[in-house]
């Protein structure tokens, strides 16, 4: 990283608390998401141990409901989403040739809001009990739940969701406005396209959830009756609000995984992605159709055959652009010089696994059949084949692929393959038997079951599979520790990459590109390699580079929201007012203090280029 007289560089903890560098914020998202992933995984293993045999008493029914609620909530909102944002932060500005995101300060605010929201939610374990109404928080379960568990759920996710919404807006503006010269929309890498569509989905989906949380908070804190049928309310309002957000959320999660798989399959097949234009339009179409299918979660509530039929057709239609992607990945590999590195193994494992989840999704799209599958373990199996077999395998692939860019180290390939096989085999052992459990009538969200119902062996196998998945995750962390040694230092382009993130030295300079690159085609770096250049052609001469200053205000602002959240949960209006006061003060300070950033001077940039550091 360059340092100079015009800028005092912070060090240690203060550097991380005040950073607005997209690369460091990506690492913060990854570490936080990884931490919550471990918590969510532990909650899942505790549930599977409870279900390993009939009439088990490992945990109580009350504890099981809390584990179930927190597992789903943690994995969706606090593990999957931040890890996606980790890759978006670390990679998207590099892929489009930008020096940072459009609003670095807002980027930091988004991270700290997410982090403090997640911490607030998980503190419920130590303050009287976690939420117990399921991760969907259906009314009247959520409105009548005793204690403060659901209050922690509402306020924690409200704060974290505000951070996610800020991040989504930031990436929309970044991708629209900050692409390098020549980087047209139809030259953008597929991961950037997926991030773009995902950010659009966040922009339109998260406000619905925000409104729902406000209604639920007012119901619990102030005694309103939006969802109380006895007082003129309607419980279906919550279901509609939640799933109008909830189904686009599935694509907010899975589209970035599609983008990751597209990058990896192309790189390790040594081929341009087959049908690039079709893949782009399929991504956009999936995002569009994602808002038109939410009622397939509600086929059994009695909306009638017309409504059910409309949403059934829309649900079936979304399989078409998804199928385009599957075939295009296969055709990309066809005839390619495939290298089965760890990222490629995860990518190849992703494809058939996600297809299985998609097939059961089409089965669930038929209302008459859904009446039989609904609220059974068949739905649990389907959902996890999409989210774990799809999203999590994609995130593992992305981690192994971009780890050299993010951490300047290469993960051990042998340990990576152990990670893959343990996790992949464990996943199928866990969730494939759950299809049969559902078809045999085992309902979801039950903490035990009677013996003699032919459910014992499948549940036993499912628990063993969960333990194998846990073992695979442990191998990943061993790999990370092993890779920290100096002998695993990465080269600038360890995979012979095709896109711009591999076009700069290791470690990545604070300003990313010493000279903004000129993009001359799809797979911009590959175009330059085939032209014999070996590096990007600059689009500008060397000059001073303007950079933003770090700030502690995003951290303090988010801490204020955290304090205010406690105030609302416990009806302590002094704490609530004090916390919101901190938020307003930090906003005021940000508005009135002139902060024009700093410049990396031309001489330093030239010195970095000459020394191979830029």
From TrEMBL:
The lineage of its organism: Bacteria, Bacillati, Bacillota, Bacilli, Bacillales. Pathway: Energy metabolism; oxidative phosphorylation. Its EC number is 7.1.1.9. The keyword Ubl conjugation does not apply. It is found in: Cell membrane; Membrane. This is Cytochrome c oxidase subunit 1. It is a multi-pass membrane protein. NCBIfam families: CtaD_CoxA. InterPro entries: Cyt_c_oxase-like_su1_dom, Cyt_c_oxase-like_su1_sf, Cyt_C_Oxase_1, Cyt_c_Oxase_su1_BS, Cyt_c_oxidase_su1_bac. Residues 16-520 form the Cytochrome oxidase subunit I profile domain. It is an enzyme of class 7 (translocase). It comes from the Bacteria. Belongs to the heme-copper respiratory oxidase family. The chain crosses the membrane at residues 27-49, 69-92, 104-127, 152-178, 190-217, 237-261, 273-294, 306-331, 343-363, 383-403, 415-437, 457-482, 552-570, 576-593. Cytochrome c oxidase is the component of the respiratory chain that catalyzes the reduction of oxygen to water. Subunits 1-3 form the functional core of the enzyme complex. CO I is the catalytic subunit of the enzyme. Electrons originating in cytochrome c are transferred via the copper A center of subunit 2 and heme A of subunit 1 to the bimetallic center formed by heme A3 and copper B. The keyword Iron applies. Keywords: Cell membrane, Copper, Electron transport, Heme, Iron, Membrane, Metal-binding, Respiratory chain, Translocase, Transmembrane, Transmembrane helix, Transport. It catalyses: 4 Fe(II)-[cytochrome c] + O2 + 8 H(+)(in) = 4 Fe(III)-[cytochrome c] + 2 H2O + 4 H(+)(out). Pfam families: COX1. CDD domains: Ubiquinol_Oxidase_I (cd01662).
């Amino acid at each position: 990283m360059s340092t100079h007289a015009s800028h005092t560089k912070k060090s240690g903890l203060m550097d991380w608390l005040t950073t607005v560098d997209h690369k460091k914020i990506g690492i913060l998202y990854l570490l936080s998401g990884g931490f919550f992933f471990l918590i969510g995984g532990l909650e899942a293993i505790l549930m599977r141990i409870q279900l390993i045999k009939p009439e088990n008493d490992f945990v109580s029914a009350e504890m099981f409901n809390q584990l179930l609620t927190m597992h789903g909530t943690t994995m969706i909102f606090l593990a999957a989403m931040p890890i996606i944002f980790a890759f978006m932060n670390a990679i998207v500005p590099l892929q489009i040739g930008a020096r940072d995101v459009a609003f670095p300060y807002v980027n930091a605010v988004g991270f700290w809001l997410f982090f403090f929201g997640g911490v607030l939610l998980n503190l419920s374990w130590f303050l009287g009990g976690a939420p117990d109404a399921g991760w969907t928080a259906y009314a009247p379960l959520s409105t009548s739940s005793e204690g403060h568990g659901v209050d922690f759920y509402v306020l924690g996710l409200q704060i974290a969701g505000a951070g996610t919404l800020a991040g989504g807006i930031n990436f929309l503006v970044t991708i629209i406005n900050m692409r390098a010269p020549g980087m047209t929309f139809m030259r953008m890498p597929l991961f950037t396209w997926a991030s773009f569509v995902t950010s659009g989905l966040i922009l339109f989906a998260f406000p619905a959830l925000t409104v729902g949380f406000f209604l639920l908070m007012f119901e619990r804190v102030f005694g309103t009756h939006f969802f109380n049928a006895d007082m003129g309310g309607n419980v279906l309002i919550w279901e509609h609000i939640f799933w109008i957000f909830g189904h686009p959320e599935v694509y907010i999660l899975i589209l970035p995984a599609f983008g990751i798989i597209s990058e990896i399959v192309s790189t390790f097949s040594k081929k341009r992605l087959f049908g690039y234009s079709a893949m782009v339009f399929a991504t956009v179409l999936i995002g569009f159709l994602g808002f038109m299918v939410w009622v397939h979660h509600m086929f059994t509530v009695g909306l009638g055959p017309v409504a059910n039929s409309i949403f059934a057709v829309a649900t079936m239609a979304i399989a078409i652009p998804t199928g385009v992607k599957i075939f295009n990945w296969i055709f990309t590999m066809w005839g390619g010089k495939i290298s089965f590195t760890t990222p490629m193994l995860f990518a190849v494992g992703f494809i058939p696994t996600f297809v299985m989840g998609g097939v059961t999704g089409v089965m669930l799209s038929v209302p008459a059949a859904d009446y039989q599958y609904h609220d059974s373990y068949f739905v649990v199996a389907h959902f996890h084949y999409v989210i774990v077999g799809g999203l999590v395998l994609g995130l593992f692939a992305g981690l192994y692929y971009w780890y050299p860019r993010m951490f300047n180290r290469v993960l051990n390939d042998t340990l990576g393959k152990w990670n893959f096989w343990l996790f992949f085999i464990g996943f199928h052992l866990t969730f494939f038997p759950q299809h049969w459990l559902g078809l045999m009538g085992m309902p979801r969200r039950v903490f035990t079951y009677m013996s003699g119902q032919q459910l014992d062996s499948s549940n036993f196998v499912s628990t063993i599979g969960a333990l194998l998945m846990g073992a695979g995750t442990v191998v990943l962390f061993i790999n990370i520790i092993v890779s920290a040694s100096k002998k695993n230092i990465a080269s600038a382009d360890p995979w012979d990459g095709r896109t711009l993130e591999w076009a700069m030295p290791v470690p990545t300079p604070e300003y990313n590109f010493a000279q903004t690159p000129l993009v001359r085609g799809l797979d911009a770096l590959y175009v330059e390699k085939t032209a014999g250049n070996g590096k990007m052609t600059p689009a500008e001469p060397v000059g001073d580079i303007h950079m933003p200053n770090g700030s502690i205000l995003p951290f303090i602002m988010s801490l204020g929201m955290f304090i205010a959240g406690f105030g609302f949960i416990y009806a302590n209006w002094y704490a609530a007012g004090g916390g919101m006061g901190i938020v307003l003060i930090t906003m005021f300070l940000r508005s009135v203090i002139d902060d024009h950033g700093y410049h990396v001077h031309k001489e330093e940039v030239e010195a970095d280029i000459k020394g191979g550091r830029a």
